[in-house]
């Protein structure tokens, strides 16, 4: 039976979304979790995933078209099936709610772990609902939410016309995991020991999707959101040790070994996890790792956090790459939209204050790296302006493979994706 | 401290008596205050004790009485001028606003006008539009005047004694409904300085600011709300000028919600000014907009039912407190 994949609801009051990427064509086979398209509103882009297995049997849109939200984007069915028989699969409320409320780029969740369910909003009285805004809140509710790294937009309001008031924030704080599990998603299902990706400061788990799609390992590919980021923004961890604790606790819930791939701050967390003894780290791939020297580009951290416009954020994000052309505008837009919609800046500022002091990294994992005896690869760009290569070189022990990449900055996974995929695959396989 | 139960009017009489005994420059004039002991019996017995030079009846001539008082104060005496209804003080507004309030400044600080105008206002008993007004905002607006509005016998005595010892013109605004109310008054010397508010009831959920006759009404509302589990803090500034801003701000920062109750009509009232202070100082700590419960913007009706409807009642205070606590929206959301 054919099912429709709907154009996601891209915003509260928006009725249209532009199709900016199509990853499938008519007749392509898709399976649950495949990225099939990206649509975007004025504020954010949304990844659309297949939630059933089958063949694309209708695809009325082409890239650049403006589609109507909640109308079929495409139909997936059996080979030879005709669309006339297709039923419109109305995603359940949780699924449709997630793209609007969780970090962007967001997806219709199909992961093995449950998607974060936004606190169900009690239905306000009909008259109130008609005028309720997206993030009405009392001043003290707003401040307290920021203090706890919570986003007003994610808290159900019980005040006048749905406004978030103090009691709502208090309830959300009480419900937020104090030291509990982080957002962990399966990006691609598979067999064997999972490969877990840990993003860097200011990113989130969805940043790994383009890379993960083409690594070519049969292992489950998972990614998590660090505290203060993406779906873990409510987590209160505020220094490096707390980040490591939080990630460690989350990974222990997998009950088994893991391969770790980390970028920048996430790489340092991955390295630190090898020291703990309570987690079986089978291999380690560190991309532009932090925590090996003292320096970090403090201006970048400050500028990145305080940028409010697309232009300002793009100016800072260009520091991440060697070739400015490799920084896709959609990445900047998605970063900005995710921050605006989820109110991530206070939480990320808290994390930044906990791990960096000006241009100094307050943590060091060089000893952990020296002690680690599993397969380990380090990838770094010669043009890295955020974490200097010379400090990485000085700290990487002799038994660890160091890949130094020309004309690559702080994002090797973007500027040298093929090589990074190869190194990850080789490092994971060498663990046996 | 040992206390006695006194009526508001008896407490006022004690204050006048004690200060007249202590200071020979204190005298009191007014309509029917000497032979008759005053319409509200505040000055009963003072004529016999201090004689007609210091306790003196006047004709029905408020402009002249207030002029005499302001002039005597400038000349070095401590006059108390009793005006039967605050409504009639309007006849003396030039002496109050242009002379008494300005004299100290215009003499480079040399001149002093320790002039006390004792009068009463507010609704109560169907005495109609010209005898029921709450006009404190008029005096509050004028720099140079002190505005005092006691709500209890104890405050009435202590504040009047303080008024008779300080150096500036005081609008001492009593309430016709309070004269017969009783309350504990400390034995012995009891002086309440200006600018120090009083927490009439401690609470944690909402701050309600009220004065004069709105205090007993607000306390009744607080009692009713307590039965529903809502803890109300009731603040009585006691003097509107000077105003105990610190007490108000501290309380609102604690409760995060604020209701202001005034009997005077809403427009241009003191409550609006206090609300502006509260939002300026406490905005980022507040969980709801400031609510004002005030009289209607109409002349006070003669008809008793309409009079009651035109000024805040206990139920109005209860409803406002529930609004700032978002009680209704919570109930709606729970459905």
TrEMBL record, chain A:
Protein name: Alpha/beta fold hydrolase
Lineage top rank: taxon: Bacteria
Stretches assigned to the Lipoyl-binding domain: 2-77
Pfam family, one: Abhydrolase_6
Domain Peripheral subunit-binding (PSBD): 136-173
Taxonomy of the source species: Bacteria, Pseudomonadati, Pseudomonadota, Alphaproteobacteria, Rhodobacterales
Subunit structure, as described in the record: Forms a 24-polypeptide structural core with octahedral symmetry.
Family: Belongs to the 2-oxoacid dehydrogenase family.
Organism: Paragemmobacter amnigenus
Cofactor(s) needed for function: (R)-lipoate
GO molecular function, one term: hydrolase activity
Keywords for this protein: Acyltransferase, Hydrolase, Lipoyl, Transferase
TrEMBL record, chain B:
Keyword list, A-Z: Oxidoreductase, Thiamine pyrophosphate
Domain of life: Bacteria
Glycoprotein recorded as keyword: no
Domain Transketolase-like pyrimidine-binding positions: 6-181
Pfam family, one: Transketolase_C
Cofactor: thiamine diphosphate
Iron-sulfur listed as a keyword: no
InterPro entries for the chain: THDP-binding (IPR029061), Transketo_C/PFOR_II (IPR009014), Transketolase-like_Pyr-bd (IPR005475), Transketolase_C (IPR033248)
Name used for this protein in its record: Alpha-ketoacid dehydrogenase subunit beta
Native source organism of the sequence: Paragemmobacter amnigenus
Taxon lineage: Bacteria, Pseudomonadati, Pseudomonadota, Alphaproteobacteria, Rhodobacterales
